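Hi C.,

You asked whether I'd gotten around to modeling the 271-residue construct. I have! Everything is below, sequence then structure, no commentary in between.
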Amino acid sequence: MPASQPRSRARDRSNVLNRAEFLSLNQPLKGNQESRSSSRKQSAQAGAAGAQNNNPKERRQSQQLPEEDCMQLNPSFKGIAFNSLLAIDICMSKRLGVCANRASSWGGARSMINLLGITGHGIPWIAGTLICLVKSSTLAGQEVLMNLLLALLLDIVSVAGLQKLAKRKGPYDINPGLLDYLTMDTYAFPAGHASRAAMISKFFLNHLVLAIPLRILLVLWAFCVGFSRVMIGRHHITDVLSGFVFGYLQFMLVELIWMSSNTCQMLISIW
């Protein structure tokens, strides 16, 4: 033990860092520690204050989100179902548009399909009704033709008004023809040719005596006219179906406001 003490003292003396002038280097500075601790506290306080300041802003922004965005983030079942049916309608209509242009799969039959669509146009039917009305010599025939003319005019005006309100475009970007501009049939919903074909076929089935084969052909003609508008890419499937329904409703309206023979004779005399 007494020998070990002198050895430890000798080591302490030989160590240069144990001298008085170098003792400050071995001890940590209190000022640096205090400054570091204070800077850490200030940064922590600043971060907490920033978080407190940012939270109200974020809350205000989240509260100021429009309801449309909230509906898009949380769509209802009706919205999902409607969008799904709309997507199916557009997809099926584009696939059935086999005569939309010359490069389509049935592009060679486009002229024939257009000719079939002209048979359901309003201008030829109005012109043909006026010619038959002039040549008709019976009161019953004139009564039927005058009411048919009223139904055709009602169809053109009502379909044009609905199309202006809906402003739905077809599945393909196809410019309307001259006859379409004359009857203001420039949009897709509802399909004017389909409504007119359904109304005319129902009108003839009720007021003309036709054989069963002719009745079947009349119904097939109305269906083919409506389907031809999908084939050339002018209308969606739902446009044509709604046109059929609208044409039937127009027929029911014409039946309610049916003009009598005396009224028709008075209008013919004025004309």
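If it helps when you're writing up: Confidence is low (pLDDT under 50) at residues 29-33, 65-71.

Thanks,
B.
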